[in-house]
Write a structure and sequence with these properties.
Blueprint lengths: L5 H50 E3 L5 E3 L16 E6 L5 E4 L12 H4 L7 E7 L5 E10 L6 E9 L4 H48 L15 H44 L4 H30 L6 E2 H15 L6 E5 L5 E2 L3 H18 L3 E10 L5 E9 L9 H4 L16 H11 L3 E6 L5 E8 L3
Parallel strand pairs: 9-11
Antiparallel strand pairs: 1-2, 3-4, 3-7, 5-6, 6-7, 8-10, 11-12, 12-14, 13-14
Helix pairs in contact: 1-3, 4-5, 6-7, 7-9
């Protein structure tokens, strides 16, 4: 899954959005849970405060005294984190307190006391002398029989809820993680299901390119069916262009054949120098016309969509033919090619390219020729067909190999030939976006490497 693919874009964008939403949900749920815990804890503290208010009375000295101890024993344990305290509202000096507070005094920050609810109760957090996290409520009350306001404060150890908060957070993270994985699995299935028509289109296009099909099906979703229709029109237009080019090439050859033949006959009947020159140039014209018409035919075949040729039968057929032609020399022509290896192009072009290479090897070989066909992968990741022809002849020096591929170049006049074979092979290969290169053979002679498009 590459970074520029639809798969990556859809999954990455959706997964990123899901992560953001799940993280936001985790944050909000944690905040809501903490607020619910605080409200519940405040209710417990208010119940304790109501119990203190119900049991408090003014003593003979005019100070508030708790007549009945609270039922909650945590207010009696020293520095337990559960405290109550009664102070003068104006000076906040401790007048009475729970045994758990010992000699200490709780002094709330002024900013916390400035925010109160409709009942005049302030709720806030503060630490005690040990650093324990306290949840505190405070209310100013006038006692029965007195005119002075007293500040009643009740504090509880909020750290006792840490385990509950931690358990909730762990459960929340596990549930959200499982939900995230389920969403990712659903997303993968959804993207795969949604992009399946594009994958089917790719397979059908591969079938058309390899000759297994002619047109795309018409059962694609309506969003991409117009694309399939346009591709079908493009394929049909390609076929029409190829057929029209072949017909025009044939018409041109037929149109020029008769005038050249007439001029050749007229010139051959005369003995003057002009007639000889005309006859010579007509021969050049005929060769050039044949050359360029043949090039046009090869170019048209190379651009055709759907042409494919099985490689192994072609190589075996060429080997048998050349074996019979060179039977007097006792040449060994060996072919190594896996079955079902296919060239994406016309059989005639493959026979012409490989046939010329094998024929050239037969001219220079001493005793053996080895022909191999195999798939190979380029640096861009594309799969190609590689055909190598090796002989045990004299070979070609490295500095002369480039010249051997030029049109009309002959490095040795001792063997028959026009010097066009290698250039025609290279030219035909280039029409298929392929390449012909020369190298040193493991048998000591020349090794020709022909890289051509392959049907995957």
């Amino acid at each position: 899954m590459r970074a520029n693919s639809l798969w990556f874009r859809l999954i990455a964008s959706s997964a990123g959005m899901a992560i953001i939403l799940l993280a936001t949900a985790a944050f909000l749920l944690n905040a809501i849970f903490q607020q619910a815990l605080e409200r519940n804890f405040d209710q417990r503290l208010r119940a304790s405060l109501d119990g203190i208010l119900a049991a408090i009375e003014l003593g003979p000295d005019g100070k508030p005294q708790l007549q009945t101890p609270l039922a909650d024993t945590r207010f009696s344990l020293p520095l337990s984190g559960w405290y109550w305290q009664i102070s003068a509202a104006d000076s906040y000096n401790k007048l009475a307190a729970s045994p758990s507070l010992l000699e200490e005094q709780l002094t709330p920050p002024e900013t916390a006391l400035s925010i109160r609810d409709k009942d005049g109760v302030a709720a806030f957090a503060m630490p005690d002398i040990q650093g324990t996290h306290l949840r505190v409520i405070e209310q100013n009350v006038k006692l029965f029989g007195g005119q002075k306001e007293y500040a009643f404060l009740v504090a509880g150890n909020f750290d006792e809820l840490k385990a509950e908060i931690s358990s909730f957070n762990n459960t929340l993270m596990a549930v959200l993680a499982a939900l995230g994985l389920a969403l990712l699995a659903a997303l993968l299935f959804q993207v795969r299901f949604a992009l399946k028509p594009l994958v089917d289109m790719q397979h059908q296009l591969n079938d058309i390119r390899s000759g297994k099909g002619e047109l795309l099906a018409d059962n694609f979703p309506r969003e991409i069916q117009p694309v399939a229709d346009e591709l079908n029109l493009l394929v049909e237009s390609n076929f029409e262009i190829i057929e029209r080019a072949r017909m025009q090439v044939g018409n041109l050859a037929h149109a020029l054949k008769t005038p050249i033949s007439v001029l050749t006959n007229e010139a051959s009947g005369s003995k003057n120098p002009l007639a000889g020159k005309v006859q010579e140039q007509l021969g050049v014209m005929r060769d050039q016309i044949n050359l360029y018409l043949d090039r046009a035919r090869r170019a048209a075949r190379a651009q055709a969509i759907g042409a494919s040729t099985e490689v192994e039968p072609v190589l075996q057929s060429l080997a048998r033919t050349l074996q019979r032609i060179n039977s007097q020399r006792n040449l060994s022509i060996k072919v190594e090619a896996p079955p079902n290896l296919r060239f994406r192009g016309e059989r005639q072009d493959l026979e012409e390219m490989v046939g010329n290479l094998m024929d050239n090897g037969c001219k220079w070989a001493k005793s053996s020729i080895l022909v191999k066909a195999m798939p190979t992968t380029s640096d861009e990741g594309r799969t190609w067909l590689l055909i190598t022809v090796e002989d045990d002849g004299p070979g070609i020096p490295p500095e002369k190999r480039a010249s051997a591929l030029k049109r009309g170049e002959r490095l040795d006049e001792s063997k028959p030939g026009s010097g066009l074979g290698m250039s025609i092979i290279a030219e035909t290969a280039s029409m298929y976006s392929g390449l012909l290169s020369l190298d040193q053979s493991g048998q000591g002679g020349l090794k020709a490497n022909l890289k051509l498009p392959m049907v995957a």
